[in-house]
Amino acid sequence: FLGVMPAYSAAEDALTTKLVTFYEHQEDSSVPSHQATVLLFDPRNGSLKAILDGSVITAKRTAAVSAIATKLLMPALAEVLCILGAGVQAYSHYDIFMELFTFKEVRIWNRTQERAEKFADSVNGPVRVCASAQEAVTGADVIVTVTMATTPILFGDWVKPGAHINAVGASRPDWRELDDELMKNSVLFVDSREAALTESGDVILSGAEIFAELGEVLKGTKPALPEKTTVFKSLGMAVEDTVAAKFVYDSWSAGN
């Protein structure tokens, strides 16, 4: 697939387009399944100002949004972080979650245990590699799913009541990471209702009701409900790339 994600932010005075290639089955596993480039334009005249590494921007802005959701929605006492998946997004989520939160234990599971062990060996801090997804999830306060799964790998009867889940994978209408029980028995937050109802298999196939967009919680028009079991379904928005790209460009221009 080749995806095109254009956006304009009046607040940032920024105009961008992100180009994303997605190759599902790769013989060369050293090449990421998703690769991206962000083009930053001058909104006054359309001139191209910069070409940026969209893969880095995507990884960091996605993890940043998950961190915002987690700050708002996680239980008051959150000690155990679980990450399902060991790809690029697992690393970016780990980095920002370790910077912002104080988890006492971090667990990881990946379909290929070798990649989970590589992850644990390469990050700064102790990570427990789990033999199964259920082992990793049981008792976890915050769960991050960043997999290439097309059928559920996280089940409601495993999840601790009051836990918070950031569901980042399964970005197509026929793909799943979370089962029906978890989707229907959790309070569901999304980044975009429109996107979730057309792109997220977890939302579409479960028939789960969307409680709020994350922006509504940030604006104070909807409550966060951290005492409940919560799911944040992340699909990503082009404006996030625009703001991030402008931030990087402004920092570079200022010599920082």
TrEMBL record:
<dbReference type="GO" id="GO:0070324">
    <property type="term" value="F:thyroid hormone binding"/>
</dbReference>
<protein>
    <recommendedName>
        <fullName>Ketimine reductase mu-crystallin</fullName>
        <ecNumber>1.5.1.1</ecNumber>
        <ecNumber>1.5.1.25</ecNumber>
    </recommendedName>
</protein>
<dbReference type="Pfam" id="PF02423">
    <property type="entry name" value="OCD_Mu_crystall"/>
</dbReference>
<dbReference type="GO" id="GO:0047127">
    <property type="term" value="F:thiomorpholine-carboxylate dehydrogenase activity"/>
</dbReference>
<comment type="similarity">
    <text>Belongs to the ornithine cyclodeaminase/mu-crystallin family.</text>
</comment>
<dbReference type="InterPro" id="IPR003462">
    <property type="entry name" value="ODC_Mu_crystall"/>
</dbReference>
<dbReference type="GO" id="GO:0042403">
    <property type="term" value="P:thyroid hormone metabolic process"/>
</dbReference>
<comment type="subunit">
    <text>Homodimer. Binds the thyroid hormone triiodothyronine (T3); T3 binding inhibits enzymatic activity.</text>
</comment>
<dbReference type="GO" id="GO:0005737">
    <property type="term" value="C:cytoplasm"/>
</dbReference>
<dbReference type="GO" id="GO:0050241">
    <property type="term" value="F:pyrroline-2-carboxylate reductase activity"/>
</dbReference>
<dbReference type="InterPro" id="IPR023401">
    <property type="entry name" value="ODC_N"/>
</dbReference>
<dbReference type="InterPro" id="IPR036291">
    <property type="entry name" value="NAD(P)-bd_dom_sf"/>
</dbReference>
